[in-house]
């Protein structure tokens, strides 16, 4: 019998899935009630659609997970979804699909902050004057969350001559030679000139970067958040920036998204906001399709797919 996939992806993506060697039947899962299509499917392919925000607090459907055998999230983070959605025989995520793009964004943020060429751009003889630029080589990048994204940034940073310190959740060695791993995130923050937040949004990381954590920062620290707005206490960030305990923040993610019109982060002179775009690149879609196709093959053979979510840990 053919595998039935209920998909929240657009029709052109679904059409490509139908071209898989397994010739799966791909049906469309309605945005507001995707679990209804899942009653007739083996696999539910979910994306972080805006509707999940409305569904998130919803009650577990009576027949969940029904015949479903696999919930496949195209996003890495599974924090968008109601907790019951993750109570399925198998849950996977899109880990690694956009790590290179996000790592390039983080490195761009580091250079933009340290070597701001626009700020020293000379258009007239009067602007032909000396101005200090900061160092990148020899500076320290602290990374909180050394997974697919953190590792992709670490590899680049080490190659560029930065020292890299990091913390992860599990007591495992650093996956990359040359990264100095600390158990205590305060030590990572204290060591850093640039601090990357690349942690998942879980119960354990909710507002993990709060006022006491930011108190460990050196005054010239540049904080980069590509994770989720919820891992950072935004009020504590503003207070630290205004008190001179932190120099600058590059934020690709906020809580909520977008921020309310009158939120001070929009116009703060030492904050650069980008609209959750760090992963944007057209190749990402092809990588996602390749990952799902490879996992469908494994699944059909009875082998475990890659990037299984530890639903108890939340990532
Ligand atoms: N801005 C964007 O467009 C965008 C795109 C993709 C993802 N994201 C966000 O980025 C997050 C990370 O993505 P990823 O692909 O790197 O995920 P990942 O490969 O699962 O890595 C997550 C890392 O965070 C660490 N971690 C988890 N809980 C922690 C805790 N309480 N304290 C310290 N470290 C902790 C994990 O530690 P272990 O290594 O010990 O497990 C792991 O190193 C995602 O969950 C998502 O929220 C944002």
Q: What is the fold's blueprint, element by element?
A:
Elements: E1 4-7, H1 11-18, E2 25-28, H2 34-38, E3 43-46, H3 51-55, E4 70-73, E5 91-92, H4 99-114, E6 140-144, H5 148-159, E7 163-167, E8 179-181, H6 185-191, E9 194-197, H7 211-214, E10 222-225, H8 234-242, E11 248-251, E12 271-273, H9 283-301
Parallel strand pairs: 1-2, 1-3, 3-4, 4-5, 6-7, 6-9, 7-8, 9-10, 10-11, 11-12
Helix pairs in contact: 4-5
The chain binds NADP nicotinamide-adenine-dinucleotide phosphate (NAP).
Overall geometry: elongated
Structural class: alpha/beta
Largest sheet: 7 strands, parallel
Span between termini: 32 Å
Q: What's the number of extended β-strand segments?
A: 12
Q: What would CATH call the architecture of the largest domain?
A: 3-Layer(aba) Sandwich
């Amino acid at each position: 019998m053919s595998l039935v996939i209920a998909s929240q992806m657009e029709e052109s993506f679904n059409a490509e899935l139908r071209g898989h060697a397994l010739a799966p039947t791909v049906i469309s899962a309605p945005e507001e009630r995707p679990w209804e299509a899942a009653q007739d499917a083996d696999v539910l392919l979910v994306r972080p659609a805006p509707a999940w925000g409305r569904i998130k607090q919803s009650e577990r459907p009576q027949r969940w997970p029904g015949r479903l055998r696999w919930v496949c999230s195209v996003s890495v983070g599974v924090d968008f979804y109601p907790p019951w959605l993750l109570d399925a025989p198998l849950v996977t995520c899109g880990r690694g699909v956009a790590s290179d793009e996000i790592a390039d964004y983080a490195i761009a943020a580091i250079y933009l902050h340290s070597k701001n060429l626009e700020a020293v751009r000379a258009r007239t003889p009067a602007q032909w004057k000396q101005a200090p630029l900061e160092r990148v080589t020899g500076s320290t990048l602290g990374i909180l969350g050394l997974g697919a994204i953190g590792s992709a940034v670490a590899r680049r940073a080490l190659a560029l001559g930065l020292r890299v310190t990091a913390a992860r959740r599990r007591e495992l060695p650093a996956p990359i030679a040359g990264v100095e791993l600390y158990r205590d995130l305060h030590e990572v923050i204290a060591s850093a000139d640039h601090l990357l937040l690349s942690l998942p949004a879980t119960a354990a990381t909710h507002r993990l970067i709060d006022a006491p954590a930011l108190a460990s920062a050196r005054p010239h620290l540049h904080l980069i958040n590509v994770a989720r707005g919820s891992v950072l206490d935004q009020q504590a960030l503003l207070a630290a920036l205004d008190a001179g305990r932190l120099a600058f923040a590059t934020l690709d993610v906020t809580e909520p998204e977008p921020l309310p019109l009158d939120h001070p982060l929009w116009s703060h002179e030492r904050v650069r906001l980008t609209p959750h775009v760090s992963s944007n690149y057209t190749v990402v879609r092809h990588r996602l399709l390749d990952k799902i196709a490879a996992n469908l093959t494994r699944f059909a053979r009875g082998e475990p797919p890659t990037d299984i979510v530890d639903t108890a840990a939340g990532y």
